[in-house]
Fold these 4 entries.
Entry 1:
Amino acid sequence: MREWIKYNKGSNPLKILELVKDNNVWNLNREEIHQVLDKNDILFFMVDGSIKLMIYVNGLKVNGVFGYGEKAKVEDIYLDDLKKELSLFKDNKEYMEKVNNHIQVAEVYKKFNNDCELNIDDLKVIYQVNKPLEGFTSALEQKLDEMKSNRIKEKDISEIFNVNEEKIAFDIDEVNEETEVFVGNLSVDDYNLDLISNIKYVIGYIYLDNKKLKTKVHVKSCWGYECL
């Protein structure tokens, strides 16, 4: 049986301590629970009487999501249940994005573990081409690192962007006038504009020495721009 149970704001912390006493993976104590319940409701996701997830909510705002797996990670098999519950709260953007990241990585990771061929979209997830993928714990990053460690990054990046491996750089010292793809955060100033002029794709952030430089950097995609 799967169900969510709710402890309303102001509830007795001892009831929650009683619920988690057999396996308190979060090391919660009475004072901490009291502080949380002062401003939030606490929801627990139960599967056959065992806790699998915990959420803090204040009205329609989600204030915390916690897994109950090893090292308090959110286990893949409960991601859909978590997403469904989060969708009930209007102010959920931060946590909905994280659960979607986990779902996306979990799908690729399953293919990886089953030795299935990975397509371009799968590779874009592994190398976080479109954006950095933040999760609830380090478990998501560990999956990405595991998959990357079993791949040939030069070959994958070449396939993703349809460029020769010689046109890919992983360090600023590798960049030349022929470089089209840069993997990592790229710092731009007046002195290296000519050097990076042919870079079209950056898997990372572009750090600008000043705002005016943005009009002189002509990349097709990156994680975003930041001024130093």
Entry 2:
Amino acid sequence: MKRGKNEPIELICLKCRYTEIVYLPIDDLPRCPKCNTPMSISELLDEGKSY
């Protein structure tokens, strides 16, 4: 699968569980706006899901 330039990814704060969706490319992972902890990648949102 070829990856595009502006792919959505879901970030999560491992401390307070705050989630945020950002689009690649990003220079570095942002910090959580609630507790200022560095966020980590939770999921790549490149496959269409239906709930």
Entry 3:
Amino acid sequence: MRKLAPDVEAHAFNRTVRGVALGVLVVALALVGLALALGDESPLREGIDWIYDVLIYGFAALAFGRRAVIEKSAALTIAAVLAFSSAQTLWHLADKIANPRPVEPEVFGVLALASIVVALLILLALWRFRASHNALIQAVWLFARNYAIKAACYVGLGFSAGFYPQRWLEYALDVMVAGLLFQATYKIIDKSLHGKRTGSTAQA
């Protein structure tokens, strides 16, 4: 796989992650505005979820190119977020098993389409950085990858629920998502503690 030179990678990632943070912020604000205009809570919840992503990408943009300890702290923070998300997924799974509820099919409307489109655009924007040796870049890539996988799985689950309402599929997806989140957490921690700090010479 062809890797970017450290300086080229640093400048390219700096521009990309700032653009991603700004783009997600615009979408989130648009959804919040739509929710307020329509009095509908669904776009509001979705927008708030994406504000959370804005904070992650914005935090990475601010930390990237700073001192090694700042970059490492930022990467470990993202790892902690992923670990918490994984634990939360398993907690929700246990609650679903203890208190079964009917699966509510996702409506393939604006929200589902926006979720998938935004996730794929972020994935494409960060694709060239997936092999980076920099712990913070790797953390951002894994965060984006897992978001895209999670969005695709749950939208797909919602669509299929109307035709195949078996709960084991939902449970299996929860376990898979939790596993991916834990795997990403391990990779980020390992890269932060043992990896080389490369591709981060640009100042944020």
Entry 4:
Amino acid sequence: MSDGQKNCLTLIIALIIIAVFGIAIFFILQKQKEEKLKAALGEETFAQCETLGGGNANLSNFPTTQGPFKSVVIGLGENDLHEWHEVLPDETKAETRDELSLIFCVGEIEKQVVEECPYYREDGSLIFAVQRFQPYKLVAVFNATTHRRIADVHVMGGIPQACEDYRYDQQGSVTAYNGSEPDANTFLRAIWEYIYRDTSRR
């Protein structure tokens, strides 16, 4: 290996080490930021998302203060910020417990059947079937002051592929077609009407 190749290899290794350290520092700072925010919002805020309490969902439980409404997004049963918290517009991210108006509790991925497609023999007997599933996450919206539930929002994922007119499969099998999981942008569109709700129209 020539000196030039050795120098090039050394430079590449150095850049990789710098990148690794940079990523590690970023995650450490991000974690410190999250812990600071959790402390500012208080344990009571995160306890709201331990279980889905708060009574029946009702829009009359909405805060009477003026929006945009300061909010936080928490994973259901996780006692931690959900990754979707980061997509909230900066003006709606709560920094303290006193300014917090809305709590969004994000559940795990669930699936609903949107269609079942049976495939039959010519004599009418069932050979196999296909089930089409659309993933979604249930997001419970809570009033941060009263802890009453405002709404249950279904953040829907993508529609699964369509069933074929003709298909060959193992006898007695049931094949699942799954749509894509909902993402952060889908979540933001779904909860937009709450963080920017116009309370003067009530």
